[in-house]
Amino acid sequence: MTAHLAWPFFDDTHRTLAQAVDAWCGTAAARPAGTDAAHGSGREANDAACRAWVRALGAAGFLRHCVPQAQGGARAQLDSRSLCLLRERLAGHDGLADFAFAMQGLGSGAITLGGSDAIRQAWLPRVARGEAIAAFALSEPEAGSDAGALRMRAAREGGSWRLDGTKTWISNGGIADFYCVFARSDAASTGGKGVTAFLVPADCAGLRVRERLDVIAPHPLATLEFDGCVVPDTQRLGDEGSGFGLAMRTLDIFRTSVAAAAVGFARAALAATVTQAQSRAMFGATLGHQPLAQAIIGDMATDVDAAALLTYRAAWHRDTQPGRSTTVAAMAKLSATELAQQVIDRAVQLHGGRGVRVGERVEQWYRDIRALRIYEGATEVQRLLIGREVLKAASTPSA
Length: 399
What we know:
CATH topology of the largest domain: Butyryl-CoA Dehydrogenase, subunit A, domain 3
Order of helices and strands: HHHHHEEEEEEEEHEEHHHH
CATH superfamily of the largest domain: Butyryl-CoA Dehydrogenase, subunit A, domain 3
Strand content: 15-25%
Distance between the termini: 42 Å
Largest sheet: 4 strands, mixed
Low-confidence stretches: none
Number of domains: 3
């Protein structure tokens, strides 16, 4: 479970962090009251569990890796390898713990990258302490994978902005304390142009939760309605018209961490399957003595390492190389989520009847991993993005 920490992508601070989160996962603090019942227990239980995880992760100090050092964070700038190690470890521990951690980073990322000093100081320390729940509000009913098609409007009204429109599939929708919202501020613009970002507190007049959305994994999601929601210009994130780029930069940071969560689910499923194979009696021996089971486990182990290598290459690239890491992040997200789905499917198969019983860990991982193939850019979008970038690079003359 720890052999990959010797890879050259990491330094000693990363290895120390991995050891710290592993140690924490074995303590009582890493199982807050009510979180055991979250899977399959209904929306209220899931909401309560998510809030409990945010508080617990804040108390443990892990949410400090979601914000910069100037606002109480662990490092001067967000470190992708730290985010990935934390998500891998937390996903193997509990899928909702990983979700709670990830959304504190993604939900506040636009503040980190584009917020004024006043906004950063007002919200990011609370995010790091687990006192404020964050959400990233980009997707709309007609603008999911095609984020540039968003229709939500932002109109100037003196020193304020009036927001009107709908956001949907918003993670932490309904339980967040604030939303980073992206709206079209130039009515004549199209695509990624003319989009501006805003920080909108959850209690802002004109903002309501129109519908809660229940999905295959126990994640709080909602459709939000903005009807004459007025926010002051001081709550704008970044320059007017720069919102789409801000959203893409935020996703660039956290897309690789989605791959890491997939690795965490897959690695845990592999470990559980090895234990099952060693202990399950079959045909006068154990499951692990059967050649077909050995071959399946060999495929699983290979896929886990392939996913991890692409994931941590992408994280290392963002942390150490100049320029955007869009292509390698997309490769990591595509490969890790698809390979993890295969690994977990094989784990379910080798667990037999136990694998499909509600409440078993492999059954939970099966539901958890499916969502990651869609979140933060579906697999098909990643394929298109990678292909476009490869073709672009091939047509660019060498220096």
